[in-house]
Design brief:
Number of strands: 15
Oligomer: single chain
Strand order of the largest sheet: 3-2-1-4-5-12-13
Distance between the termini: 57 Å
Strand content: 15-25%
Largest sheet: 7 strands, mixed
Shape: elongated
Length: 382
């Protein structure tokens, strides 16, 4: 390890558990120790940071305290959705008490929003003029500043495996349509990417508005599909894709319109989408983000260290680390605020919406196949 540095870092998990969080904590703790920093871990998110050491929520960790965390799912530290504004004074008190100069927050939209609140509270609380970094970790993949959040790969794999098993259950029962509800809040990433992976007939999401005419067209498409060798259908629905067209509504509509042609079943995937053990991508990605985040924080701490204390009040002292196209980039939370829909907890622009054309092409191909316009396409391809 490097010589002992004067800096102390605190690491915490915020929001819902996501696969890969533990890999990120492990690599961040160990690279922090290698840099010579004092490293604290905080249990129960911002709520734990407000409680302090008295209840064992803030503790210093060493190299072996995070051994074996790489392949563990969920969050070993424990997470809470509590935002800092509910307990700001206690958080400031503990930041001062433990002399924390760097805060690494691993979590979902609450982690991003929480760090933004801490940055905005720097005026009245000078103690919050420290280096902060967010590692996006959520199955919803709805944090601005990154194309992929930790845990979303594991979640897509878990949802895909579940849909494959659901489809397989219809191999003995012909003419059946499954309606599968996925998680993700208002973000339709899980529904869309899982739909592409399993060859779904449709995936309804909030970002791509749909009407009763779209539902009717899909019922007609499924009715035509039942005339071919493939006598089963799969429709994915994001949990908050529409206020009125609920999973129950879709079930009633499809059951009624498909009466005598196909029957219908509902499956709500629920928390099994959190996926258990992280996939190789999430383990690798979490490890890399943990290392890069701490190295960035160390560099920033050196820049703002003056006369024995850290004072960081510039916009680029609090960032979200993320993969943007091919580059791991740091985006200031104050800049990301301008491109965030806080009401629906979404980035205003999402790259994966372009992939939805692939879902539409499934339907076009099948319809053309039935009408005999695509004789060169084999049944097996479809």
């Amino acid at each position: 390890p490097s010589p002992q540095s004067p800096f102390s870092l605190a690491i915490l998990n915020v929001g819902a558990p996501a696969a890969g969080m533990n890999a990120a904590v492990r690599s961040a703790v160990r690279i922090g120790i290698c840099q010579g920093h004092t490293v604290y871990v905080v249990s129960d998110g911002f709520e734990g940071l407000s409680k302090g050491q008295g209840r064992g929520t803030i503790r210093e960790v060493g190299w072996h305290d995070v051994a074996g965390w790489l392949g563990r799912g969920g969050s070993m530290l424990g997470t809470k959705r509590t935002l800092p504004k509910t307990c700001m004074e206690k958080i400031v008190e503990n930041v001062r008490k433990f002399n924390i100069q760097g805060l690494l927050v691993i979590g979902g939209f609450e982690a991003y929003e929480g760090v933004l609140q801490l940055v905005e509270a720097r005026g009245p609380y000078e103690e919050l003029c420290i280096i902060m970094c967010v590692i996006p970790a959520t199955i919803s993949n709805n944090v601005p500043g990154t194309d992929f959040s930790l845990g979303s790969d594991t979640a897509v794999n878990a949802a895909m495996e579940s849909c494959d098993r659901i489809k397989q259950s219809a191999s003995g029962t012909k003419r059946r349509v499954f309606i599968v509800e996925t998680m993700g809040g208002y973000c339709g990433y899980l529904s869309t990417v899982t739909g592409i992976a399993v060859g779904a007939d449709a995936a309804y999401v909030y970002e791509d508005p749909f009407t009763i005419h779209d539902l009717k067209a899909n019922v007609e498409h499924l009715t035509d599909k039942m005339k071919t060798d493939i006598q089963r259908g799969l429709v994915l629905r994001n949990e908050k894709c529409h206020e009125h067209y609920t999973t129950e509504f879709l079930y009633n509509l499809y059951s009624s319109e498909g009466k005598g042609i196909f029957d219908c079943r509902i499956n709500v995937l629920g928390h099994l989408q959190q996926g258990g053990a992280p996939t190789p991508f999430d383990r690798n990605y979490g490890t890399k983000l943990g290392v890069k985040a701490v190295l960035w924080m160390s560099e920033k701490l050196q820049e703002v260290y003056r006369k024995g204390r850290v004072f960081a009040n510039s916009g680029d002292s609090a960032c979200v680390i993320g993969l943007r196209k091919k580059v791991v980039a740091f985006s200031p939370v104050t800049e990301l605020k301008k491109v965030t829909d806080f009401e629906h907890r979404l980035p205003q622009e999402q790259w994966w919406l372009n992939l939805r054309l692939v879902l539409a092409n499934y339907q076009i191909s099948l319809t053309e196949y039935i009408s005999g316009k695509m004789e060169h396409v084999t049944r097996r391809t479809l």
